[in-house]
Amino acid sequence: MKQLSIIICAATIIFLWVTTPAFSQNQDEIVTPMLGKGVCKADIEKFCKDIKPGGGRIWSCLKSNNDRLSQECKDHIAMVQEKRKEFIQACKDDSKKFCKGIPRGKGRIASCLKSHEAELSDTCRALFQK
């Protein structure tokens, strides 16, 4: 189950990386599903309960309350950021090659990469198969 969560997380990270110009606007797409239902749920409910998701508002709220977040949430955020870097490095060329012109949002880039899994570079494909 933990590996499935990491794979879903990684796919979302790929999507966000491919849409780097809008990364800050799309942070909630990664933060809310991953953190809002997991280890950071209590922190989001405590510090960001009145924040409307979207436009990076939840992410900004967490960042502004970083010193008050639980250690588990801080550790999870750090892990997510590290996984994002890993995917950026491993899947950059594949996303440009196979997903050029795919509209941003709703995991479309990650789905695109997944649909080309057999054609992906070894390093990118390995991340999908973890």
Q: Mind explaining what this structure looks like?
A:
By secondary structure, this protein is mainly alpha-helical. It has one domain (2-129). The protein is built from 7 helices and no strands. The protein has helices at 2-18, 23-35, 41-47, 57-64, 71-98, 108-115, 122-129. The longest helix is centred in the middle third of the chain and has 28 residues, at 71-98. The protein is elongated, with a radius of gyration of 15 Å. The termini are close together. The relative contact order is 0.17. Residues 4-11 and 13-33 have low confidence and may be disordered.
> Helical amount among residues, as a percent range?
55-70%
- Report the sheet-strand fraction: under 5%
Compressed to H and E, one letter per element, the order equals HHHHHHH
> What's the end-to-end separation, in Å?
12 Å
Instruction: Tally the structural domains.
Output: 1
Number of helices, counting only DSSP H or I runs of 4 residues or more: 7
Largest sheet: none
Secondary-structure-derived class: mainly alpha
Q: Please give the number of β-strands.
A: 0
- Global shape: elongated
Radius of gyration: 15 Å
Average pLDDT works out at 75
**Uncertain ranges:** 4-11, 13-33
Overview in brief:
This protein has one domain. 68% of the residues lie in helices and 0% in strands.
